[in-house]
Amino acid sequence: MDSIRVRRALTTAVTAVAVAGGAVVGAIPAQAAGGAPAAGGAQASAVKPAAGVGASAPWGKATHIATGYFTGGSAGGARHMDMLVRWSDAEVTLYEGSDGKDPKRPFSAEHQLVAPSVGGKRSAWSFAEGITGASFGNGSDGLVVRWRDGELTQYTHVDKNGFHGEKQLAPANDKAWGHAAQITAGRFTANAQRDDLVVVWDDGQVTLHPDLDTNGVKPAAEKTLVGMNGAWQHAAQVTAGEFSGKKTADLLVRWADGEATIYQGVDTEGLHGETQIRPQRSDWLHAAVVGAGAFVANERPNDVVVRWADGTLSMYPGVDAEGLHDEVKIDG
């Protein structure tokens, strides 16, 4: 199918359900700067018992999901990926991956990294517009965060004690990065790290920024995957995963009209074919936040997590080139 066909705009009611990237809706003072707590400044870690971790969480308030090996483990090992959640009150929580294979209970502990905003004291994480997990080597995985003022930040390592190795990739009030609508990091080049950033811009252009730790987001390293167009302006969420078994990662896109597609083996040469896994006007109209990780078999990040508009959380284990399979409701 034509990957850049024009997709019709939806009604305000539908797009309100499909908040792009899970961004927080609300008035934020224009002068408020982005940026997160400095390394070592995170709140004390709070751990819940292993049984039913996340079962009582208010998932309807989860605005962003990022995945990675933040607390240990690696692909092929016993410990599965972790999931970091930013909530609507700006609390940031890390759910530690379990070593079991029950998709209903993928987490073994919960750690609070940032306390929620209380009263007039607003957390810096109130201003996070886009969050994606990434791996840069030599320790735990990290994050890339785009802030409301256009700043782009790399946290080279994240663990249960907080954020470490902060690096500014683009400064506050950057005219270009204020137009980044969606970001996701994955393994889109030949090396083994998930350190390549795909960006969907508000004009529909899609770019790849390879090897962030080495190149940052310098224009000289940027690759254009899709030129400016109207179709990609309707990409409600983009998520990197490894579903097709190609040499590089795939891009899962949830469109504003409820369609979901996978672009297999994305690399510096561009997109290579599109597979539809949900049609227009499907139940994915109500998928508010989408992420991918290795939560069950732990071989590659091919389990898709969806936070629905009704506040429930579910997983599609083992997504592959044939698409989605069984949906499992997460109860802990």
Our estimate of the beta-strand percent is 35-45%
Q: Please give the alpha-carbon distance between the first and last residues.
A: 38 Å
Low-confidence stretches: 1-51
- Biggest sheet: strands side by side, in what order? 1-2-3-4
Structural class designation: mainly beta
What is the CATH architecture annotation? 6 Propeller
Mean pLDDT: 86
- The CATH class assignment is Mainly Beta
Shape: globular
Structural features, described:
This protein is mostly beta strands. It has a single domain (12-24, 40-329), classed as Neuraminidase. The chain is built from two helices and 20 strands. The strands form five sheets. It has a four-stranded antiparallel β-sheet, with no helix packed on it. It has a four-stranded antiparallel β-sheet with strand order 5-6-7-8, with no helix packed on it. A hairpin with a 4-residue loop joins strand 10 and strand 11 (206-209). The protein starts with 11 loop residues before the first helix and ends with a strand.
Helix/strand layout:
Layout: H1 12-17, E1 62-68, E2 82-87, E3 92-97, E4 107-114, E5 128-134, E6 142-147, E7 152-159, E8 162-170, E9 180-186, E10 196-201, E11 206-209, H2 212-215, E12 223-226, E13 235-241, E14 250-255, E15 260-263, E16 274-278, E17 287-293, E18 303-308, E19 313-316, E20 328-329
Antiparallel strand pairs: 1-2, 2-3, 3-4, 5-6, 6-7, 7-8, 9-10, 10-11, 11-12, 13-14, 14-15, 15-16, 17-18, 18-19, 19-20
Essential attributes:
4-stranded antiparallel beta sheet, signal, globular, 332 residues, disordered N terminus, single chain, Neuraminidase, mainly beta
